[in-house]
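Long-time lurker, first post. I've been practising inverse folding by hand and with some scripts of my own, and I keep getting stuck on stretches where the structure tokens seem ambiguous. Below is the full token string for one chain I'm working on. Before anyone asks, I'm not after the true native sequence, just a reasonable design that respects the backbone. If someone could post their per-position residues I'd love to compare against what I wrote down in my notebook.
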């Protein structure tokens, strides 16, 4: 089963309790021989693609050549449509990398990968609404602790750890604490 697909809008993340999932991504790669166009340099052809480090060399029709690293590849546009390659980029299981989709908790953007179950899988789902509520509660606890002079020498990690231990308790009117 597919848990979610690349480019879908997301508002939750998942924690793998049992089984294994894998992530795939559609990558638009420029292979050797692909005709491309650059806004300033014009048309050319991909002459070389190296993997380590990842560099794409383009020889332009005007005779000049230029090398592109992944951050600058957006400057090249294929002359004809390029079919994406689907590449497995990550695996998720309880004993390793066990969560995915976390970007959706704090960002409003499409999913970067497709997540598919390799085996039967059991996951826990955390919605962005719940995550943001928990985050606000944690921040409120940390702010309260920072206002107590007893804890003024605590660093951020210590305040965070102490705040994580605090649990809300409610008392009725007249009840002794």
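-- Answer (accepted) --
I ran through it position by position. Result:
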């Amino acid at each position: 089963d597919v848990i979610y697909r690349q480019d879908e809008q997301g508002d939750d993340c998942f924690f793998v309790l049992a089984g294994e999932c894998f992530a795939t991504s559609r990558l638009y790669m420029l292979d050797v021989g692909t005709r491309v166009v650059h806004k300033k340099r014009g048309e050319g052809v991909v002459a070389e693609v190296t993997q380590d480090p990842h560099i794409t060399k383009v020889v332009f029709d005007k005779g000049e050549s230029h090398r592109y690293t992944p951050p600058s590849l957006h400057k090249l546009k294929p002359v004809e449509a390029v079919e994406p390659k689907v590449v497995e980029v990550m695996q998720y299981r309880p004993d390793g990398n066990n969560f995915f989709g976390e970007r959706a908790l704090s960002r409003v953007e499409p999913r970067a990968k497709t997540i598919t179950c390799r085996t039967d899988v059991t996951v826990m789902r955390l919605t962005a609404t719940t995550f943001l509520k928990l985050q606000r509660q944690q921040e409120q606890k940390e702010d309260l602790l920072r206002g107590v002079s007893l804890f003024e020498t605590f660093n951020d990690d210590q305040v965070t750890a102490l705040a994580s231990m605090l649990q809300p308790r409610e008392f009725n009117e007249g009840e002794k604490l």
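A couple of notes from the structure itself: The two ends are 51 Å apart (CA to CA). The chain is about 20% helix and 35% strand. Happy to go over any region you disagree with.
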